[in-house]
Amino acid sequence: LLITAKIERFFLITAKIERFLRITAKIERFLLITAKIERFLLITAKIERFFLITAKIERF
What we know:
Structural class: mainly alpha
Shape: rod-shaped
Oligomer: single chain
Distance between the termini: 88 Å
Helix content: over 70%
Number of helices: 1
Strand content: under 5%
């Protein structure tokens, strides 16, 4: 009975680890999405700079 109790506890711990890993996977996916958004914002900033330069050329 002690051995089965230990096995049960082990499985409970592994289940908790599995849940933790699932949560970290979700966090990782979220961070990937935020990284993509950041890249998109960088691109839009470059486009904005380009438009500013063209506006200066137009004024000139």
